[in-house]
């Protein structure tokens, strides 16, 4: 295809502003799908994506559009992941495009996620076309939103396109704006092949499918290719594009977006941001911008029923086929038995994997408190990375502990600002900036990641009744006064409950945990102390009082079937009990204690 007739663009939007609905309309209008095939939200094809209204994997679709100038254009629409956890994937998707539609809800206005994505889009030199969506809503204030786009983002919104993606208003105008305003890609067909690996996923029939943007040269079916960073070589057996149904092609040339398969089984060979070139007469240098993605949030995943361990291993391995960004290794816990220590890109990523294991693989799971990776600078000069509080070395051997920090941008209506600032302060935040635009505040904070992974996002949302939005990126590690807090039941530490906390927060968190456990652990015939301790020092304590008399006596004398039932129930209960120095703790108590975050 003539480069002048190609347009590559993505759609950026805050969650729920109508990105998927608009994408579906564009597909429908250009004939990619018949009305009958047009089920809701074609691009978000995973259940969890649909339910949460976010895109987890980048998807792309090629549209043929006959514009009002009489020419037929090849439009490549790239749907980008919609969450901060996947910021690097977003950056690669944006790097594959020359422009973006900025979709803003006419009733909600500009939100934090909009801002974060727009700034990235601007960094990639995109031509940005503002689209003010949901103009059909009674609460729509398109003119106010237009002014907001100009004031807050600094974009010219005088020719923003007004749409209702839901009712199909303004769709032709969007297509014309894409053709007229977004520049065609540049690229040299005759140059050595340079194709950026934008995304990849595992398909049971095709193997690993790789989404690429060809920057220079031509990527042909039958070519022997090499991943410049990954280092492996493969034979391209399919080249094609999604319309959104798969269409096979002979080649993808400079400027084009499409997919290839090369009989690859292992997704870890296909790193997002890698450069694909030909083995013969290939490019000399990989394209700029590659980054190694590394999990930042770790937690233990354990089956509630120990017999499910093998099933959990299989299920995790299957999920991993499709997602190279999470890691897992076996872990054993005295409290929870056999399980896996898993690493994720962020909390949402954790929740998605956990949800898929529960839902698709029908597993009942316990998740230990999420933890970040700490850098232990040891007295002997070595540095250790701690993924699990249970593995904390002897504090006497540690010189300093460093923890990861983030810079967060919070965007919130004025009325909630006070409580949001307090929340940040409580989480050891350092305020860097505070500005006001049109009834909203934008607060920039530096925060320890550790204070954010617990329940920061939920708190933020509940304090602001859902109006605050939040976006962050990591800014490196800093030394912190961090300690390992153990929880002891009947004087024995419970490994699954230990956590690394800042000394200033230890007492409050310890007290909270003890109170919680006191309610959760059933009474015994003797007193049970529950303690939170740092090293040998107890910082919080609760006591479960002894039972007055043998309440099991109540069961005697009942009718026989009832007794049998009770006995069976007890037997089942026993399986799930763990003993702590003659104290039996129902597994539910651990689960509940861990759920509090
Ligand atoms: P995304 O999260 O940005 O992909 O947003 P969706 O496309 O999933 O849309 C979120 C919700 O807004 C859905 O319930 C849509 O039906 C609704 N929606 C999208 N566009 C419009 C519109 O133009 N008008 C109205 N009233 N609702 C819309
Ligand atoms: Mg969506």
From TrEMBL:
**What is the membrane topology listed in the Swiss-Prot or TrEMBL record?**
Peripheral membrane protein
Write the Enzyme Commission number(s) for this entry. Answer: 3.6.5.n1
Which controlled-vocabulary keywords does the entry list?
Cell membrane, Elongation factor, GTP-binding, Hydrolase, Membrane, Nucleotide-binding, Protein biosynthesis
For biological process, the GO terms are: positive regulation of translation
Q: Which reaction does it catalyse?
A: GTP + H2O = GDP + phosphate + H(+)
Q: Name one GO cellular component term.
A: plasma membrane
Major subcellular location class: membrane
Any stretches that span the bilayer, and where are they?
none
Q: Name one Pfam family in it.
A: GTP_EFTU
Instruction: Recall the GO molecular function terms of this protein's record.
Output: GTP binding; GTPase activity; guanosine tetraphosphate binding; ribosome binding; translation elongation factor activity
Q: Where in the cell is it found?
A: Cell membrane
Cross-referenced InterPro entries = EF-4, EFG_II, EFG_III/V, EFG_V-like, EFTu-like_2, G_TR_CS, LepA_C_sf, LepA_CTD
Sites binding GTP sit at: 16-21, 133-136
Domain Tr-type G, residue spans: 4-186
Q: Which NCBIfam families match?
A: lepA, small_GTP
Job of this protein: Required for accurate and efficient protein synthesis under certain stress conditions. May act as a fidelity factor of the translation reaction, by catalyzing a one-codon backward translocation of tRNAs on improperly translocated ribosomes. Back-translocation proceeds from a post-translocation (POST) complex to a pre-translocation (PRE) complex, thus giving elongation factor G a second chance to translocate the tRNAs correctly. Binds to ribosomes in a GTP-dependent manner.
- What family does the Swiss-Prot or TrEMBL record give for this protein? Belongs to the TRAFAC class translation factor GTPase superfamily. Classic translation factor GTPase family. LepA subfamily.
How is this protein named in the record? Elongation factor 4
Q: Which organism is it from?
A: Sphingobium nicotianae
């Amino acid at each position: 295809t003539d480069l002048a007739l190609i347009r590559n663009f993505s759609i950026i939007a805050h969650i729920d502003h109508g990105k998927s609905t608009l994408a579906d309309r564009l597909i429908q209008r250009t004939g990619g799908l018949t009305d009958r095939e047009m089920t809701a939200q074609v691009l978000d094809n995973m259940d969890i994506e649909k339910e949460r209204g976010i895109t987890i994997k980048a998807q792309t679709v090629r549209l043929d559009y006959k514009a009002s100038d009489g020419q037929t254009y090849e439009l490549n629409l790239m749907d980008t992941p919609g969450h901060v956890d996947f910021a690097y994937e977003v950056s690669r998707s944006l790097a594959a495009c020359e422009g973006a539609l900025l979709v803003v809800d006419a009733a909600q206005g500009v939100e934090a996620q909009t801002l974060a994505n727009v700034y990235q889009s601007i960094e990639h030199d995109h031509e940005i076309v503002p689209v003010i969506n949901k103009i059909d809503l009674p609460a729509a204030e398109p003119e106010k939103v237009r002014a907001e786009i100009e004031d807050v983002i600094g974009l010219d919104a005088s020719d923003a396109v007004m749409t209702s993606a839901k009712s199909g208003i303004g769709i032709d105008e969007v297509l014309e704006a894409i053709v007229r305003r977004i520049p065609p890609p540049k690229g040299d067909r005759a140059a050595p092949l340079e194709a950026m690996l934008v995304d990849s996923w595992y398909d049971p029939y095709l193997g690993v499918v790789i989404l690429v943007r060809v920057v220079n040269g031509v990527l042909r079916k039958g070519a022997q290719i090499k991943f410049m960073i990954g280092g492996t070589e493969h034979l391209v057996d399919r080249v094609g594009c999604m319309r959104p149904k798969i269409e096979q092609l002979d080649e993808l040339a400079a400027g084009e977006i499409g997919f290839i398969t090369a009989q690859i089984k292992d997704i870890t060979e296909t790193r997002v941001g890698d450069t694909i070139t030909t083995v013969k007469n290939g490019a000399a240098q990989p394209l700029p911008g590659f980054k190694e993605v590394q999990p930042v949030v770790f937690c233990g995943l354990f089956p509630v029923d120990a017999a499910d361990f093998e099933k959990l291993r299989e299920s995790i391995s299957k999920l991993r086929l499709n997602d190279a960004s999470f890691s897992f290794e076996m872990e054993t816990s005295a409290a929870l038995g056999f399980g896996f220590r898993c690493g994720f890109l962020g909390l949402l990523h954790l929740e998605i994997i956990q949800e898929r294991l529960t839902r698709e693989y029908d597993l009942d799971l316990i998740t230990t408190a999420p933890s970040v990776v700490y850098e232990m600078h040891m007295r002997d000069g070595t540095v250790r990375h701690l993924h699990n509080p249970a593995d904390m070395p002897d504090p006497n051997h540690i010189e300093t502990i460093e923890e990861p920090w983030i810079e967060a941008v919070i965007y919130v209506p004025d009325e909630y600002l006070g409580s949001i600032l307090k929340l940040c302060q409580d989480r050891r935040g350092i305020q860097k900036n505070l500005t006001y635009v049109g009834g909203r505040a934008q607060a920039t904070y530096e925060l320890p990641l550790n204070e954010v992974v617990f329940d920061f996002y939920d708190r933020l949302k509940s304090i602001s009744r859902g109006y605050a939005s939040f976006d962050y990126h990591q800014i490196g590690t800093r030394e912190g006064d961090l300690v390992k807090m153990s929880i002891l039941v009947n004087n024995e530490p419970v490994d699954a409950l230990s956590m690394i906390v800042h000394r200033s927060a230890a007492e409050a968190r310890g007290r909270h945990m003890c109170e919680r456990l006191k309610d959760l652990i059933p009474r015994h015939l003797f007193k049970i102390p529950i303690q939170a301790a740092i090293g040998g020092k107890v910082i919080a304590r609760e006591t479960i009082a002894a039972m007055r008399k043998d309440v099991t006596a109540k069961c005697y004398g009942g009718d026989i079937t009832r007794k049998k039932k009770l006995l069976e129930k007890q037997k089942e209960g026993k399986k799930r009990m763990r003993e702590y120095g003659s104290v039996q703790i129902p597994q539910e108590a651990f689960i509940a204690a861990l759920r509090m975050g």
